[in-house]
Amino acid sequence: MTTATATDKPAPAFRFNKLGTGSFQLDLGILIFALVILALLSQWFLLDSSNLDGNLTSRLKGPGFTGRDGIYHLLGTDQLGRDLLFRVLGGLPWSLGISGVAVVCVAVIGTFVGLIGAWYTGIIRTLVLLGIASMVAMPFLVLALVVVAVVGRGFWPISLTMGFIAWTAVARVIYAESRGLLTREYVLAARLFGVSKWSILIFHVLPGLRPTILVMAAFFFAVLLIIESALSFLGLGAPLNAPSWGNMLSDSRQYLVNAPWMMFVPAGAIVTSVISLNLIGDGFAELSRKRARAVEV
Amino acid sequence: MTNPQDAAGRQGNSEYLLEAENLKVTFRAPGGRKLHAVDEISLGVRPRETVGLVGESGSGKSTVALTLMRAHEPEGGRIIFDGQDITHLNERELMPVRRRLQMVFQDPYSSLDPRWSIRRVISEPLKAHKYGTRQQINDRVAELLEQVGLPPDAANRVPSQFSGGQRQRIAVARSLALQPSALIADEPVSSLDVSIQAQIINLLRDLQDRLHIALFIIAHDLALVHQISDRIIVMYLGEPVEEGPSDEVVGHPQHPYTVALLSATPVPEPGGDRKRIVLTGDPPSPIARPNGCRFHPRCPIVQERCRTEKPPLTTIGPGRKVACWFAGQMDPPRDLWALQNVPLPPGVEPAKRASLGS
What proportion of chain A, given as a percentage, has pLDDT over 70? Predict the structure, then answer.
């Protein structure tokens, strides 16, 4: 019997020694999203409430306009003479915050429900799958309308509503993935060693789900950002005066011809954020594929 | 080395550490039919003894192992571990049993979590049973790695950095972590290279000698099981067809199926190539089993009686049992039959599995 020695192959790991993650999409996505976040942070020292006030003498002015009060409007002004640059910056906490809270809810609820459905068999699994199906059948806009009617428009009502509605797709994907992971022999081995159900789910199954969760979270962040804008556009989202991007788009609708910049500014912000999040999602997917090839064999 | 338990609590034949009595496992097949994976098998493993279970793919060997480990619920029969009936214990009550009864799986590529370090893999059963402090666990891991012949720095690596044989050593180390008194090995070498198989078999033997564990080993290679086992049970289509001391079963096989299994083993000498008994056709499906003797559609010495009456497992000597109406009438290497392709009787479906031999 020869004494076995482990191979000296270096551990397959991400190359963090060079700048970048190994996926160009992820690099680009993170770069753009970092700029968005930087813009979000910049308002703490650039923005105070007076910046968001309007000046009716300089309403509907185009980009690069200097008002009589000597204020320079880089991106122009809206129908109440409010500066669009400050307004789009002020919209960041609303738009990103609402969809950010919602995406955390989506990931947590979806993962939990998916895991429960995958672990149990019989009546509990049937109930979970039925529950998911009935959540899918629920008309989202009607529910949002009810919530707004009861609680009113605001940050928490709308973000939690979105979070508690949109998790079904995540739950289904996690359910399918977990069922696959639960058939692995190391799960059976753990069970037969007497490892508890929750330990198996948290330490064996959840790490295997991490790439899926990351990818889905990135995509859902983008989707929820758009939904939030759509809700605000329809008057079901952020409060009326809040500089949410959907609200800004909603305002711009009446001035499409006279002041098209009013539309382009929030639309550009939405498109940039969504693209960066989609790039991040794609990048995560690419990396996890590469990594799966290195680790699983 | 039986545990000195109170006499009242003990059940079954106290000579055995791990015992199954008339174990029966069925699964539901599509169409509401029953799949008889294991039918009325009884077996016992004494302390320090090695028992081999042999049979071709799909004969229910792994189901026996997993049922003994209480991963499947048996439909009938009892499982007795160290005098305690564990057939209906719940997970919490099973914990002390799980500590003393461990298992090595067939495929070391899927039985180790690819994301876990070897230290974490081996310490998993230790942590599940609250073995001790982190330092004690690390010491134990180092000790186990040494026992299975791996370097101490292996603890910090992940499974993908090891070969199949090394991974199986890791799996063996993990199963020995809690110093079990019985170890079930489900085809521990069949996914490994032939050159590595002997290493793992020797390792298991060596560890058994040193640690005095009872070993229940499952394989489809009769020669390999013969090498390691004290006693052998041959299984066909979920039922035992022959059992006895290892040398007896291999030296004087009584059941035609055992003979066929033996003849499939290559002979390592020039010119020593004997005629093989090649079993034709696939094993019948365990959903629609043949009447009479389960083996009769493929049996080279089948007679009219075999088609209608099922032979019972009869004792023919000390510890020697066989289930065949014409036991001992097929004797290798003198009597060799070239088998014709016997068609399956009507209503009997072939299983979609690779056949033995050829």
Answer: 90
